[in-house]
Design brief:
Helices cover 6% and strands 38% of the residues. It has a single domain, classed as Kelch-type beta propeller (Neuraminidase, 6 Propeller). It starts with a helix and ends in a 5-residue tail after the last strand. A hairpin with a 2-residue loop joins strand 24 and strand 25. By secondary structure, it is mostly beta strands. Strands 2, 3, 4, 5 and 6 form a five-stranded antiparallel sheet that branches. The chain has a four-stranded antiparallel sheet with strand order 1-31-28-27, with no helix packed on it.
Length: 386
């Protein structure tokens, strides 16, 4: 009897151990397109994630219709983390004047006030002039998740600056100071390396509490060379902006990069903003040179997880994790995740998705691959691999 109980206990322990290991193993899940009333194929859009309602909020981008027209619509996906039932897409119809159509813009989200802030991007319709004219303005969508009231667009008219018009830049939101931090980007026409090495901070970014104002940061060190379609994440606790990859000048050559840089005091407070090179260009064991990669930051593990992007020989679909992503507490190092089962196709992903910190899930929508824009939503469990 005792032997039987002992064996049962060992078996239970082993099963529980391997169940725990399995649960902690990263895995991709494709979410169905529930509730789609028309094809959402598009690239160059932006999505943000609202943790309180478990919704993804999508704005604009270029469609897969004839001529690839740019859009200015807003859609919401429920149960976006893949939990709680089958998610469904529905279109929001905001009141007020609408922002002009655009793609390759930026969007950040103020979760406390349910407000999405968009800036810049390629405006009008695709022409031989590339992205010109640039949609060089800032808009805020209140009740952005479609709950709590009628979603309403309001254009902001900040003082200061403004920054030079740009697209394929990166923006992050600092909830502590209600600031939007904008890094780099390209001028919309001409060379891919007609880029901006600057960092700008927009105060009162959600349109509440005072007059929004643009301030250019006087940074030292750097700047990172990957200034076109880089990937940027933000550690709001330590006020550090981390940047990976992108296209830029490497000496006299314009090309893809793979370096990682961190900017301290990124919101312009607490000291002089300083760029520090965490992982040098071409470092052994790093991801390949690439741009338009999707990435998230996990505060609990101080890691940045990236997926996909545009590389030298086409789009890629690998997943990498950077330790000590803010440059604090140890040396930053890359690890490639080996993920079994289905994985998303090779694609450029831009800044499309979000991170559910409560359930430890990375959420990614859309992008573009060799055959055109995508509509799919994928969820990665345990994105840090820890």
């Amino acid at each position: 009897m005792k032997l039987t109980k002992l064996i049962s206990s060992v078996v239970l322990f082993v099963c529980s151990f391997w169940a725990l290991i399995a649960a902690a193993s990263p895995s991709w899940t494709l979410l169905g397109p529930g509730g789609l009333t028309f094809p959402l194929f598009r690239g160059g859009s932006t999505t943000v994630y609202d943790p309180s309602s478990n919704r993804v909020i999508l704005f604009a981008g270029s469609s897969d219709d004839v001529g690839n027209p740019r859009l200015n619509d807003v859609w919401v996906q429920t149960n976006a983390n893949g939990l709680g039932g089958t998610g469904a897409w529905s279109q929001l119809l905001p009141s007020g004047a609408l922002p002009q159509v655009r793609s390759q813009h930026s969007a950040v989200y103020d979760a406390a006030n349910n407000r999405m802030i968009i800036y810049g991007g390629c405006g009008a319709v695709p022409t031989s002039n590339g992205c010109l004219p640039i949609a060089d303005n800032v808009w805020v969508l209140s009740n952005a998740n479609g709950l709590g009231g009628t979603p309403t667009w309001t254009q902001l008219f900040p003082t200061g600056g403004p920054p030079p018009a740009r697209q394929s830049h990166q923006a992050v939101y600092d909830p502590g100071t209600n600031s939007m931090i904008v890094w780099a980007g390209q001028n919309g026409g001409g060379s891919a390396c007609a880029t901006f090495p600057d960092v700008w901070v927009l105060s009162h970014a959600n349109g509440l509490g005072g007059t929004p104002n643009w301030t250019q940061l006087s940074t030292t060190g750097g700047p990172p060379p990957g200034q076109y379609s880089s990937t940027a994440v933000y550690d709001s606790t330590n006020n550090v902006l981390t940047v990976f990859g992108g296209t830029g000048l490497l000496g006299t050559h314009c090309g893809l990069t793979d370096a990682v840089w961190a900017l301290s005091h990124a919101n312009g407070t607490g000291g002089t903003p300083v760029w520090t090179n965490l992982v040098p260009q071409g470092a052994p064991g790093a991801p390949s040179n690439r741009s338009a990669t999707f990435g998230i930051y996990e505060p609990d593990t101080n890691t940045m997880t990236i997926f996909g992007g545009s590389a030298r020989n086409g789009a890629v679909n690998d997943t990498w994790v950077l330790s000590h992503a803010n440059g604090i507490g140890g040396s930053s190092a890359w690890t490639r995740l080996s993920i079994p089962g289905p994985i998303p196709v090779q694609a450029t992903r831009w800044n499309n998705g979000g991170f559910d910190s409560v359930n430890d899930r990375m959420i990614m929508f859309g992008g573009s691959f060799s055959e055109g824009p995508l509509w799919s939503t994928w969820v990665l469990t345990d994105p840090s691999g820890q």
